[in-house]
Amino acid sequence: MSSASSNKPDGKKTYHKKVSGKALDTANLHSEPQDLKLFGSCFCPFVQRVWISLELKGNPYEYIEVDPYRKPQSLLEVNPRGLVPGLRHGEWACHESTVLMEYLEDLGQGYSLLPSDAQTRAHSRLWADHINRHIIPSFYHFLQAQATDVQVKEAETMKEHITKLVDAAHKTGPFFLGDSISFVDVQLAPWLLRLSRVLKPYRSWPDPAPGSRWASWVEAVEENSSVQATTSEDQLYVDSYERYAENRPNTSQVANAVNAGRGLP
Fold first, then answer.
1. Cβ contacts of residue 134 below 8 Å, gap of 6+?
2. Does the bond joining 174 to the residue before it have cis omega, within 30 degrees of 0?
3. pTM here?
4. Three-class SS of residue 62?
């Protein structure tokens, strides 16, 4: 596999179709057939959640790059809507990133992302829900906003949602529950990475304040080997998210849902 993008006739960038950088190395290492198969797309943050989980757990798996805009039959057999990520385990198939992360937990193999204590597990699920309900939609609302005053408003909303998450985290961290990466960190990680790789170049998102709890969290996630192993080169994200930053029509089902005021698909 190699990184690949294409330009539209008007010279605008469109999404890449192959992973690059360390993610390419990881994809090549997991290109042989396995019973457990992850169907993914290099630019998709929902895919990266599941991919990080697989890397952390050390499960044998096969990574299959697909173009969700062309919806190959192999993907439709896993998810009739043609969205990624999709997981096939033998004859069984499922989709939706949080569901897939919980399925990998339920297998009871490898590194556990959820603690054994029931209350701490519930705490983790509560704040994973906060990420899905608030932080992720805010990311797209901010990125897709075209008017400056709306961008300012969306940026403040997103900062508020992040602050609430940081306040709920372990006081010294560096991860959500303390020293070790866990479920909430993986839920957040793809969008945390895209703050500097997407929101910073397109919307001047600021770097974390030096010495802050947020800065230590960002640094810990960025330096985690499983996160790095599933992350492509920066240019892939800059190119692939230009269409969101310009709010082009029919960019994706996510973008359409944001524009229509609906929940994310």
1. 161, 164
2. yes
3. 0.95
4. strand
